[in-house]
């Protein structure tokens, strides 16, 4: 998805207006300073195609498990476009310049590198987790082995080892329990489906993913993948909701699924259902800026400006360099008649991204009555016009 002068398109289709607003916000959320994380696949040169497929699929599942941690914002899977510009071999070797480039490109404080290989019935997984704090980068590593014959035990053990690593970084997070990746047969269909989808072969990909569901009808990961696919690429909201609700039958506190259920209900025009889903996700991840910012937008649309301001304010505690959220907070304050608070929020927005938002401020009806106001004029002048 590309942003071009405020117009959004996906897969050759016009995006519905309501969904465009949410997707626009999603593009801005991954701002510098957010304690987010991403997983990058580091496939060695000359690796067998099977190992490349295994690596990308297992790393996708690791990213899903990162999302379940309360202190991590939702992982942005559009990162694949960014990682194409990085040298994964340099990253794997711990090259400081390449790691710095990755932190900057992802706008995250944590970068996990995953490499997985299978040989003679044995699977070896290595995950290197890099954290940047106060300019210094620290690293942890997990190496885990198992067998293809007992794939469920292998993935359960790998995920447990990964969580142990995360708990060293985030000691105040509660224990997170997540299902295994299922049987090797189901995972194989999932991995092939994800690879085919990445190649643009959607029909064949969906065939593999449906085979995965036939093998494992309660697979959290396959339902999650398909739900996101149907809402973000096909705009088939009822099908997406069906997949998300299937997950919640067995995992009612699954915050990432609740997030996407809220997203889908909003796109469908069901604001009440969207708010309920986002509020449920917020109980599990109370500091997540994505969840909070979407609640802010929804409450603003409902005319509950106090609720909107509360959620935007909490989101900005986790994401203080998110210019869009400062702009949205300013709009809420303006509609509430709180001019001084609105000007303070606009000032913070323009300090961060005046080149993007200055023209919007000058033409936004929410601020139109202030054009002759001395404080407003001084702020505009200070930021470039």
Write down the secondary-structure element order.
EEEHEHHHHEEEHHHHHHHHHHHH
Q: What percent of the residues sit in helical stretches (DSSP H or I)?
A: 55-70%
Work out the radius of gyration: 22 Å
Mean pLDDT: 85
Uncertain stretches of 5 or more adjacent residues: 1-21, 23-34
Shape estimate: globular
- Counting DSSP E segments of at least 2 residues, the number of strands comes to 7
How many helices in DSSP terms? Answer: 17
Report on the biggest sheet: 4 strands, mixed
Could you give the order of strands across the largest sheet? 4-5-6-7
N-to-C CA distance:
31 Å
Alpha-beta classification: alpha+beta
User: Approximately how much beta-strand content do the residues carry?
Assistant: 5-15%
What does this structure look like?
By secondary structure, the protein is of the alpha+beta class. It has 17 helices and seven strands. It has helices at 17-29, 49-67, 79-83, 88-92, 96-106, 151-169, 184-198, 202-215, 220-234, 237-250, 255-268, 271-284, 289-301, 305-318, 323-335, 339-363, 374-382, and strands at 2-4, 7-10, 13-14, 37-41, 110-119, 122-133, 136-147. The chain has a four-stranded mixed sheet with strand order 4-5-6-7, sandwiched between helices. The protein is globular and about 75 Å long. It starts with a strand and ends with a helix. The model is unreliable at 1-21 and 23-34 (pLDDT under 50).
Key words describing this protein structure:
385 residues, alpha+beta, 3-stranded antiparallel β-sheet, 17 helices, 7 strands, 60% helix, 12% strand, disordered N terminus
